[in-house]
């Protein structure tokens, strides 16, 4: 399974991160049968797969969720990512676009009020 390969690679990449030991203790991370870190303490009966926030794959997963939710905003994006995965500091990753690529989430969809303001300025008569 390709996804499993990328998850393992992201976890190996994040194991060298300064936050990994803290995350391992706080989230009660344990290896499953596939050799993937899972969170054992957060949700009863469900064991989401741990992804470090510093891995590029994690940022790409968040970007895919952003597109899947049709630019639905921070909360909806976080909900989509957390369906199967657990990413510590996910809100920061989603808001800032990730440490690896600061332009990752440069969303070109304009908020409605910004579009309306621009439209009003264009239709006003110049004096």
Label the structural class: mainly alpha
Radius of gyration, whole Å:
19 Å
Compressed to H and E, one letter per element, the order equals HHEEEHHEHH
Approximate helicity band? 40-55%
Question: Number of helical segments?
Answer: 6
Distance between the termini: 65 Å
Q: What can be said about the biggest beta sheet? A: 2 strands, antiparallel
Low-pLDDT runs:
99-103
Strand order of the largest sheet: 1-2
Number of strands: 4
Indicate the overall shape.
elongated
Number of domains: 1
Mean pLDDT: 82
Percent strand: 5-15%
Structure at a glance:
It is built from 6 helices and 4 strands; from the N terminus they run H-H-E-E-E-H-H-E-H-H. By secondary structure, the chain is mainly alpha-helical.
Tags for this entry?
single chain, 127 residues, mainly alpha, two-stranded antiparallel ribbon, 6 helices
Can you put this structure into words, describing what you see?
The strands form two sheets. Strands 1-2 form a two-stranded antiparallel sheet. A two-stranded parallel ribbon has the order 3-4. Strand 1 (29-31) and strand 2 (37-39) form a beta hairpin. The radius of gyration is 19 Å and the shape is elongated. The protein is mainly α. The chain has one domain (2-123). Helix content is 48%, strand content 8%. It is built from six helices and four strands. It has helices spanning 2-15, 20-26, 56-68, 74-81, 90-96, 112-123, and strands spanning 29-31, 37-39, 49-50, 85-86. Helix 3 (56-68) crosses helix 4 (74-81).
């Amino acid at each position: 399974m390709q996804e499993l390969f990328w998850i393992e690679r992201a976890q190996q990449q994040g194991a060298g991160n300064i936050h990994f030991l803290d995350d391992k203790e706080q989230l009660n991370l344990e290896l499953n049968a596939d050799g993937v870190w899972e969170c054992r303490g957060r949700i009863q009966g469900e064991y989401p797969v741990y992804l470090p926030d510093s891995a590029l794959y994690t940022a790409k997963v968040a970007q895919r969720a952003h597109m899947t939710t049709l630019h639905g905003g921070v909360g909806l994006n976080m909900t989509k990512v957390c369906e199967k995965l657990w990413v510590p500091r996910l809100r920061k990753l989603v808001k800032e676009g990730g440490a690896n690529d600061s332009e990752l989430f440069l969303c070109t969809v304009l908020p409605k009020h910004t579009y309306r303001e621009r439209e009003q300025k264009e239709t006003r008569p110049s004096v």
